[in-house]
Structures are given as structure tokens and as C-alpha cells.
Fold each of these.
Amino acid sequence: MPKLVFLTIRMKRGYGLTEMVSQFQLHLIDLGWEVVTLTSEKEMVFDAPEVLSDCLTIEKVEEFIQGWKPDVIVATSSPYFEMLPQLALYGRTIAFEAGDPTPEFFTSNKNLRKKVILNKELSVYPEVDKVIAISFFLQNEINWPESEVIYLGCDHISDFGVKDHVINGGKFRVGTLARIGKGENDYKGVELFVELARMNPSMQFEVMGYGTKRDAMIFQNAGLITHLNASDSEREFFLRNIDVFISASKWEGFNLPLVEAQALGTAAIAFDLGAHPEVTPYLMSSINEASILLRHWQKNDEALSLASARSYSFVRSKFNWFSAAQELDRVARELLSNQRIAIFRKTVRMNTSKKNSAIKRGYHALKIHGLKYFVSRVIQELGGRSPYH
Amino acid sequence: MELANFYTGTSNLNRSFEFNLKSPVPVWSSGSPRQNEVLGLSVIVLNLEAPDLLHQIYIGIEKAQNDFKESGYVLELIVGDTGSQEVEVLNLLDLIGEKYSVHRGLDYHFSKNNNYLTKYTKTSHLLFLNNDVLIYKNPRALWECFSTHLKVEQEVISSVNLLFPDLSIQHTGVDFSKKDGMENIPFHPHSHEYLEVVKGTVKYVPAVTGAFLMTSKMLFEKIEGFDEGYNKECQDIAYCLRARKIDVLSRVIEVGNLIHIENGTRPKNDYSNPDRKRFLRKFSSFIEGTLNA
């Protein structure tokens, strides 16, 4: 039985990566893999023998891998991406990218974020056997055309079918779900959501999210209803019972909550940003367009019911965890059967000089950034000094 | 065109600037009567040189006037010239300008020009018309389409069947490809086929051509006109699909033979990849999730 290890920063509720790793682990086992997840921290709900926490350092990860001997090593987040080149000695390596929001969206840590992204482009992707992106948007965003796209699934969400009727007799409820807090607010489009609420006073705008009471103040001050740190069942109840879900986010590698809302039979709209063009039929080009559509649905039960049913069918037919796991299974087995990779890895092991490594990275830099950048990069590497490390 | 190509050459960060709130556009409010607006049709035509085509538009509008007047509606012509220099055209623009509205010196851009010209219209309805649709041969087509358009209570977008000079079909609505590698690309079904359609027949279609696109001004303003992000193509189809999101349907009316000398206004095969990418990015999921579901 082939063995696969996931390396992911945390296993905690409210994080899309956690859901992703859990689902892949579950379905890959069905597909004949032995799977273990290494993480730095986990909640009790993920307390299983196959999920090991406190594995944040390369020494701990390496120690486990040397003992367990996985065939395939899949990293889904930093700092594990950055460990993959070193771990390539022990098995096939996959960087499974959920992406990094554009640094310019943040008011703090901008340069650090840029450095992390650039480092992956120059020192991680060229050194791993495969890069996988969770959307075509992300494939373009990470600037790695050789990557493959594997969509996430939505069938971890309960299937209540389409809504037979618009549930709420009272106020028209518009909701969103996201992690909230200073860092997240920078790119989650909080100001757009609040503005939509201001433009549509006859509707009830609600926010559900993981965060503190202090984080929720920005919404409460704007007159919005907030639901903090809900359980999975409360989250599903919320997503099913609001009339429309909106994601105002300006960057999403996939946007699991947007897809989950649709999987629960709720029409969902998002702006033409991030991976949204791939995950909702109702893509908005402006805040006014969003407002007009909300008003249309508020006045027309039949139109909203039809849109909700279409959204449900759209995501349920397109995003499926077993299909996603089958894709990862295919990629992993192809890597295992590819002898050239094994020979290449041996070659890399034999020639681990700084010079060869620089040329290898330089080749990718040439493809991506052009000749001028390539030349300066090789000079820096050969000179033993790089501004990026 | 693969999904991955939707995004190439575009910047998510740059797109996000379109959503900043520094200068939000006032939201359209329904039902407010417009000052100085009269019931009728404003025909908006862009022109560059092509005196014969411009002349036939003028003649066609003149011939169609009676049908509108008899029923108490106004028919006006708005011409936007995008840089003609031929004396014959300039003289013709002077002649048209004596009776109708003429705007010279525009830089050709379908969306920007038409959005701009719409501000000079005085009527309740708009017809965006290519100058190579030969209305002088069938001027009654304007009234047939307009009167049929008015018969439905709900908002619709109307167009007509258009024919090539050999009387085969040029336009009978726009559909979206399901072929591998061409998914969701707009195309003209039945192109070059010979179809017999009974006059007055109305057919609902996914979208219609901008060569003959009739809409109420209220809808046009509500959805903020043509998307100026398109430079050469797809803006007409995008208009129809943006309207369709709020359940405004597009339809084609049979009004008798109406010839469209396709590519009279744009060179043949003058495709724009950026426009197609923009269109596919914005509408692929909508087409898959609603029209082709």
C-alpha cells in the first residue's frame, strides 16, 4: 500500500486548508493509500492517530519521514513548502497550493509576504516533483504554468437539496461567512459588504465568522448582525437559511464558504476577483450590479428560487471530493511510476553544488522573468549572495 | 480556450481597484419618470467614412418616420462619426445634422461611443444599429420590431433576424459553443443556412447581436450601459447576459428580409483575445450554470 504524508500548518475548524486535508485524507484511504498528516497544532476534533501535531521543525518532520518512509510528501502550506526541497531525498514531493493573498492588500507585513511568494517561485516550485493549484486563477497567480489544477469539493456539506421556497417571510437576509480580524479584513472586502448593507437598508445583513468580539465590532457598528465562532451545524443552518450569500473578498484561491453556501441551496454572489469566476454563476462586476441583483431577488421569490436551485446544481455537479482525491491519486501514482524523476533525483543528489542549484533555479527564472532577471540572478547565486534568501 | 487563459495578462490587484468605494455610482432607482423623455425610439449609429452605408441609414430612417408618427411615437437618429474625412461623408453628416443629432470626432470604441451617444437621446427606447444593416430596403423593420417590443409588459431585449446578401441567415440570435476547446464562446447558430420564418415570429434566445439591439433606456441605465472594458467585441453579448442575470430575456423577431453586410463595420476575423478572455472570465460559469445547465 503506497504511503502519503500531508504537511499542513494547522488542523483547526474554520480553515479551508484543514477541510481540504481532512477530505483528501479520507478519500485517499478509500483509494488505497496509507495517509498521515503532520501539523503544528490541532484541535481535539482532529485528534486521531493519523494526525500528528507539534511537527513544526524540519528536524521533527524529517525524523518522522525517515521512520515512516512515505512514497509521496504533500505540503499544503508554509513552512512546509519550504521544507520540500530537502525532503525530496525521501519521496516524491508535491506542493499543493491554496495560494497567498496579494501582499498589496495588506497594511502590514507586505514585504515579508512578497518574500515568501518569491521564495516559493524560485526555490520551492523548481525543486518539487509537482505543483498543484486549487483553481485556474491560482495557477495563473503563482506563475507556474506547469502546475496542475485540482478543484476542491463541496460534498462535506450536508445535502438538504434545493430549497422548495424562499424560507424567510420576514426581512430579506443577506449573509457572509469568513474569518474576521484585522489581517483578514484587509482583503476580505469588509468595506464592500458594509457598503452593500448601507445601500440596501430594507435587507438584513449578517456576518458569521471565526474571530473575537473585538473583531466583530466593525460589523456591529455598521448595524450588521454578527454570529461568532459557530459550530459546523450552526454554520450549515446559517448558510441554508439566509436568502443570499455574498462574498465581498478581493482575493480567494477558491473560496470554500461561497461554494458551501451554494451546496446548501443558497444563491451566492461574488465579485470578479480571485477564483470567483470559476465558482459561482453570479459573478458581479461592480457593487451597483450586486445591489441591483439583490433588489431583484428581494422582489421576486420565483427568480431567487430558480437562482438558488441553479447555484446548488452548479457546485454539486462541479466540485466533488472523491473526484478531487482521484485526481490527486492519479498525479501521485504517475509520479511514482515515472523513472525519469528517480534518475533526476539521483543526479540532483550527486550534484548538490551551489552552482548547479543556481542554474536550475535560473532556468525557471529565465522562463518566468526573462533574460535580464536571469543573468542578474545567476550572478548573484554564483557570487554566493542572493537578496531573496 | 482553456479556463487558465481567462486570467493571463490580467492583474487581480488592478481589477480590485474597480471595486474601490471612493466614487460609487449612484444606484438606479426604479420607476422614476425621466424629464423630457418621450415615447419612441432613438436609433444610434456609428460611422466611419462609408457614405453609401450612412446614406442608406438616413433614407431608411426617413422612410420609417410615418409608421412611428401615425402611432404617436418619436423616431430619432443619433450618428456618431469616428473620424471620417471624405468630403461626401462630411456633406452627408451636415445634411443629417440639420434634422438629427450628429456627433463628430469620436475615437472608435463601441461601448464608449454608444454609452456617450445615449446621453443625447430623447426617447424611451434605444436601437443600436450597425450602418451596414440595410434598413433602406426594409424600413418597416424598425416599426415591426419596436411595436412588437412594446407588446410585452416585462423588460426584454429585442433584435431581428438578419440575412446575408444571398438571403441566408446571418443572425437569428447568439448561442454559446459547447465544443471542446471552444466552450462558451459566442456564435451565430444557423449561419449561412436558409430558413423560412413567418413574419411576426418571436423567438427567445440566449443573446442578440449589437448590430441590431433594441432595449429600453431604463434598462440600459439600470445596468450601466455597455461594459467599456471590451475594446472590440463581446460587449453586446455581455449586455444581454448582464440583463439576463436580472431575468431580462433576449429575443429575435422576424420582420421580413433585412440584409446585414457583416464585417462592413469591422474587418473579417478581427477577433480580440483580451475581449474573449474578459467575456469568458465573467460569463463562463453563468452560461454553464444557467443557460447550458
Amino acid sequence: MGQTRLRLFGLVAVALMLAAACGGSGGTNPPAKQYKIGLVTDIGGLNDKSFNHLAYVGLQKAITDFNVKGDVKESKTGDDYIPNLTNFASTGYDLVIGVGFLMQEAVGTVSGQFPNIHFAIIDGAGTDAKGNDLQHTNVQSLFFREQDAGAMAGVISGMLEKQGKLKNNKGVISAVGGVSIPPVNHYIAGYKWAATMEDPGIKVLVGYSNDFTDPAKCKGVAQGQIQANSDVVFQVAGGCGLGALQAAGQAGVKSIGVDADQKDADPSVIVSALKKVDVATYTAIKNVVDGKFTSGALTFDIQNGGAGYALDNVTLPADIQAEVTKVQGEIAAGTLTPPADIPA
Amino acid sequence: MAQGTGAMVARPRPPGLPSGPTTIARRVVGGLAMPLGSVVFAFVVGGLIVAVTGGNPFSAYAGLICGGFGIGCTQGENPALQISNTIVFLTPLIATGVAVALPFRAGLFNIGAEGQLLAGSMACTAIGIKFSTLPTPVLLPMVLVGGMVAGALWAGVAGVLKATVGAHEVVTTIMMNYVAQWLLRYLIIGGPLQLAAGTSKSLPIGPGARLATLLPSDNSLIVFGLPASVYRVHTGLFIALVAVAVFAFLLWRTTLGYEIRAVGQSQRAARYAGVSVRRTIIVTMLIAGAFSGLAGAVQIAGVDHNLTDKYFSDTTGFDAIAVALLGLGSAVGIVLAALLFGALHAGGSVMQSDAGISSNLVLVLQALILFSIAANFLGAMRSLIPGLRRPPGAPPPGNPAAALMTEAAAPPPEGTPSK
């Protein structure tokens, strides 16, 4: 049926491209070696305003700085992870980057098939079906100390609540997690730890939506927390969490964005806890170009500029700003260490 | 019988329709023209969209063809790998395509193939984990049949509701999709199938529950220049082809198939002829669900080996609606349409990295194909509205796929294989 037509198209297209290729070769010397970098997004796609977008930003910066060839494959469904990774690996890319822990198993499988290709994965490792790290020597894990970023959000929320500057003012703030997995809980751990440090009497409610995509689910969880007098809702649930930001806006309380700067997502967002996937992606590419690829984990935190915060629709009083800067300096210096597990 | 089917009252066939070899030939040509035309239309309009947005449609389609069929690759893609990816993608589309096409023949619109597929994959995984130590000859049939039963029950709910209280199957099957999706979430996030706290996947099924791949899953064996394990084509392909053959046989060579078609063309006439409409509706949905459930079980047994969060974003059961429509609800048509959609799926990402055109173009093409088929609905209606009826002597209209959903469709020639 369609294929005869398709083949015809193909022949025409190939002929055209050959013609174009012949006409285009101008006789200049090719550059020494152009590294090829492949980026595979997860199902969020490039326009997720979060991980995938930031990874793309990092790739673009690397293309400019190191003259690498950077190509992207967006995954439409989870079925695409393995074909997309395999495709880059089988066509001789120097580094194949998988965005997000959803791709752990796929990276584990494909990195085993192509031991001579470098892989990097954001927020995960190359694992087997049971989630055990296969520790392939061609895989680099790009991890983040999310608790550093969460702590900055926690300092601001804790101080605002302590000073009675918020709506309910009953000493309650909250967090909406997507699923209870390590990257989510790291954020919440830093948040709760820092808020309690600033305001020892504060109560931090933690709820999970069991979802990363459906805003309605997170909205429901957030509304429950706001009814229980929460003044600040910290969303740690990706696209689902946008519903939590909305719920805060509608109830007249404040909210905190996550991963990327979510200033524009809702007017209630006062600060965003940042996970700088662009920095991580750029660093991974730079390492390959410099011949310094290492397997195992590479961790990004406040100290190396891979985690942080962005102030959004708010101007902080001078004393709070001073405290935030002080805590940031202490975390960077290592004198303060936010915990990875949510404190009791 | 409830009157929820009021829109599907019987219409008499226009009198004086000629029949004979010429008509059949015309119908075959007309039947091919519609899907081919839809695909060509989609590719032309898609090409225009690419050109208007500053891309090169020729390099876009070259990328699609390379990705889908391994032909004319410019960036060193391995043709065998691309073809194997296409086959992996098309396998579940065949069985779910059947699960949509069969109810169409009975005048039912099964939008629940996705939920039935999930039910099948959940049952397959649960059985494959629970009895993981059993050997293949015992466990593999268990997981496949388990998946079929689960899918059948999932669709059967809609069938029973339709037959007893007249609840519209479009609504009930959509709702059952949600039930399946949330049940899946529960099972692998905090539920009994969860691998470990903090994960969103299940344990892998036992080795005895897995379908063999055509090539050994070996990283050191080099086939066509790549490790053999990258070619993921599995024996589920043959199961899908058997399923589609069973569908054709059932529909055209059995009493039940005759009853299904009779109910689809006119419930009143079928009832008058002694066919139990209620029973036929329920049985049709049960069988359709079994096909979808089989697709889900084969996907677990052949490709994934465990339930993961990727099933949250699975769209196979929805793509199947397009496959069934484009394939005109016939066995051969479904296989060809599944091949096209599988190739589009596999080709999208190659097009994106080679030609720099967003793989969303694939979704645009799929939508355009569907749009074009739906637009032909008007062609079918035209012959039924008196003012627009073709003049006497004009050739009869073809067999537009969309009209399969209506009882107004002209019946396909009796007794001929569903070519």
C-alpha cells in the first residue's frame, strides 16, 4: 500500500540529498574531530520547562563552546527509550545522554550492548530490571543534592512563617511530592530541615500525589494541606505539581516551584528550588570533549553551582535575604549539611 | 432493549444496487483508494507544514523512511535495527487493531483497547511473577491466556452494560481505561506488585513466562554489525499474525461472525432473523477484549518483562483505532496499517535527529490520516441524503472505513475472504 509511494519519496529524497552533498563540498579541510552528542528526552519532551528543556539548554551551550554536533531524540512513550538510545549508540555518537531516572533500565541495557560508547544519565544509573546499578564503566550518573536546593526554599519559608508575614500564620507549611522516590524526598528533606532550623515550632506537612503529570491530582493534595492551615506549598512533582501552585494561588497562600525557575507558572510562586540540569549536561559533554570522562556518579550541589534557588514573585526583607545568603554560604562551605532523608 | 442505540436504526439498502463482478472490483479499488488517499493526503499536507515552518520535507521523509524501513539512511543507521524496531512497534498494534475492528463490525465503538491491553499486561505480570519458577511450556500459555481473560473481562463489563441497561460503550470503555490506568498505578506504586519502596515498577516475570526473541539476546554475538541483543523482534509477532487470521476466520467463516455483522448492519433485522442481539454484543466485546489483553500480555512477555511507569504513557490502544479505520476493518488492512504506524513510530526519532524536524510531525501525520478518513464520512453520508444522492447509474460509493461504525455501510461481499 503506502510503501511503494514511500519508497518513491525516499528515492527522490536521496537523489536530492546526493545532489546537494555534491554541490556543497567546497574543498576546505575538515576540522580535527567533531564530537557527536546525542540527547534522548524522556516522555516530557523538549518543551517541559524543566529537565528536558534544561538539558537541551546545556547541549546548546556545549555546541557553541566546543563545536560539537548535538542531536536530540524526543521520546513519545516509554517504548521509545531503548530504540532512541540504541540509535545514537549504533551510529557512533561519542556521548549519549538520557534525561531522567525513567530511563535507568534502558541505559543499563543499551550501555551493555555498546561498551565503547559513553553514556550519561540525569538522576539515575544504568540498572537492571530490579533497579540494581550494573556499574558499567561507560556510564556516568549525574546526580544532584536536591536537599541543598530544598534547604534554600525551607529557610525562606521558615523565616516568613516565623515572622508572621503569611496568610494563616498558624505555623504550618507543606510539600506535595510526586512519588516517594529519592530525588523527591531529598528536596523535601532539605526543605523541612531548614524550615525547622529557622522556626523550631513549625509543622511541615508532607503529601504525595503518586503522579508526575496530572495537575488535578496535586491540586487535590495541596488543597487538603491548605485547609490544614499551610501557608507555603512546595511542589516536588513535575507537571503534576503545577496544580499545587495553582491551588496555592487560588487560596491566597504562597508556593514554591521546583527543578526549573517556575516564576511564570503561578503568581503565588515566591521561590524556586533549582536543579541545574543544564550545568550537569554541559559538564558531562565538556568532560568527554576534554577526554576526562569518568564512570560512576558525578554530584551537583550548591558548592559547584549545580543546585540553588531563584527568587520569584517576591521581594525578601533584608534580614531574611541575609539569612538565606548566610545559609547558602555555610552549605557551600560544608559547615551545614542538609540531610538526604526527611527528618522526623 | 434500551433505546441507547437509536442513532443506529436500520436503513434499507438502496434498491436496485447492481451486484456482480464489476461491482466487486469497483469496491476493491474504491476500498483501496480511500486509505491510500488518506495516507497520501496526510503526507502532502504534512510536507507542506514542514516546508511552511522552514524545514525540508524531503529530508524529513527521508529520515522517516530510514527510521521506519531502514532504506536510504544517510547517518549510518543500521537498516536491520530500524526494521526490527518497526516490527516491535507494530506487533501490539495488530492485535489491538483487531480489538477495535471486530466491535466496529457489530456497530460498537471500542475505545477501551488501551484499558484492555493494560488489564492483559497486569494479569500477565501478576501470573508471571507469582508462578515465576514454572517452566516455559506451562507458564507461557498461562500468562498469555491470563492476559486474554483479563482483557476479555475488562471489555466484557462494557458489553454487559451495553446489552442490559443500554449504557453507551464509548463512555463505559473510556471509563474502564481510567480504571485500568489507576489500578496499574496502584499495583506498581505502593501496591502488591511494586518492586521496592521508592520505585514505580514491578518485579520481572519469571524466565518461563517470556517469549523468545528471534535472535539470541547476546551482547557478544555480532549480527548485521551490531550485538544480537539490539534486535528485539520476538515470537509475539507470529502470535499477532495468528490473531489477525483468527479474526478474519471468525468474522467471515463462522456463524458468530455472521451474527456480529448482522447486528452491526441492523439490530432490528438481526433480531427479526432470530439473532440474540444482547448475546452477540456481549460476546463481541469479550472477544475484542481478549485480543487487546493478548496484545498487553505479549508486550510484557516479549519486550518489557515487567510493568513499569512507561505503561502510564502507553498509547497503543488509541493508535489501534486509527489502525482499524485505516485498515478498513479487514485483516490484511490492519496488518498493513499497523506496519505504517509502526514505521512512523520508529521513524520519528530518526527524522528528528537526522533532519532536525520535531518527531511531533509523526503525530501530525497520524492525525491527518485520521482526519482524512473521518472526512470521508461525508462521502458516505452523501449517498444517503436524498438531495445529494448520486444520479442513477453512477457507480456505487466505495466502502469508507468510517462507515463501518454505522449501520448504513454497504455490506461487504458475502463469503469472499476479507481482502
